[in-house]
Amino acid sequence: MLSPPPEAPTSAPARRRPPRWLAAGDVNGFLGLALDNTTVLVIFSTLLIGVFGFPSDLVLRRMLPGTALGVLLGDLAYTVMAVRLMRRSGRDDVTAMPFGIDTPTMFAMVFAVLGPVKLATGDPVLAWKVAMAVTLAIGVAKCALAFAGDWVRRVVPRAALLGSIAGVAILLIAFLPMLKIVRDPLVGLVALFVLLLGLLGGVRMPLGAPAAFASVLAGAAVFWLRAALGGGGQPLPAISAGFALALPGPTLAWAGALDTALPYLSIALPFALLTIIGGIDNTESALAAGDEYRTRDILLVEAAATVATALCGGVIQNTPYIGHPAYKAMGARAGYTLATGLVIGIGAAVGALAVLVGLLPEAAVAPILVFVGLEITAQAFLASPGRHGAAVALTFVPVAAAVVLIELGGMLSALGASAARLAGEASATYQALVVLGNGFILTAVLWGSALVFVIERRPGAVAVVFAVTSLATLCGLVHSPLPTGAVFWPWTAAAPMHVTAPLAGAYGVLAAVALLTARPARSR
Would you call 146 helix, strand, or coil by DSSP? Predict the structure, then answer.
């Protein structure tokens, strides 16, 4: 029954033709992938300009084009890889890997690097240079990790990695934007409800529009209709003057900010790990769907695109997107990644994205942030073993300290005060927040890993994690007591050893206790 009909051998050569890399399904794939990337860039720009007061020219003419360049390069490379796989296999149904801007990293760069540097120094250009340096560090780390991705996946517990990102998601990504929604509830709550109806309630949007698009459109429509009727009292967004050419080019501006960037480099490794592991998972997902890409090639492309992004003024890393089987089910081939790369890269370079940013009120975009935060947090619990739930929850604690520091710093600044004027119990509490909040992402990964190993009864691994944490504390990679979160060498006169030495010693004691608990287990 499975044998070919008799005429197949003679007729096959006549039907043989080069595989088609472009199909009707690429239109659907392009709409989904391009909208996803555009939404991230719009949210990024809105947060920097509207929340932290960055100059729009710096964001829209320098950061956006450089960041979009990475999308262009990565999508072009993945398109070429898909075409080559088609030719090598002779199949028409090969789908390119989706590629774009990493959403968790975008929020981390805004709330853990760009925003804090701007608030601490008042210099948005310095914040941009620091963010470039951090992005470059992420790219370099990914270049190395691309050759050791499977080993990293085995060593770092999923609960620790996903938990640290989930803490950022629920406490930074979801909580802070919710304040924007509450400030303009007519726009924000309408947009949020439409989004939740479409993405969680399964309600089909008019004309089959994506739920995120329908949500933003609904919020923006309410906002501009209210403005036209003269109501609301909310300030209108500053619409861009129009299209303007802003071609990204290589720059060494980041090199002059390396000293300032040192305290923020602790976020580079966790987020590099996140996308490397995600890239491995996505490659396996593509293989299950029938498209066999070499894992190392997929990872090296995202690493090279991230390095190019940083060297050309961009501040967010790139990554393969989840959802290759979904794009394949749409009938997409290789055309959708090519179109997405060109639209995002060229759109940012000519100012089209800048115009879009100016048309969207913050309260209409904020619900997307809330949903992203909820989804990432839920994933951390659902994708980790149930017994590791406590470890996921523990990772939220240092992130909570960072959120309180951000909000408290803004309030003190608005009152014309500073933390240096605090005294007594207030001063001690603020210092504890600084110690707990500085290096919060790395702290979360280390704490989460330690608790996972405790749950799994691996005392040797627990001891190693606490020893690493002790060393990281001595140089300020975690728990830096300096207000800027700066790192330092412990043997220098300026090192705040009166704070870090007791903390490092405590972690050393914990490592010793963990090793002691291993003795009875070995004697049984």
Answer: coil
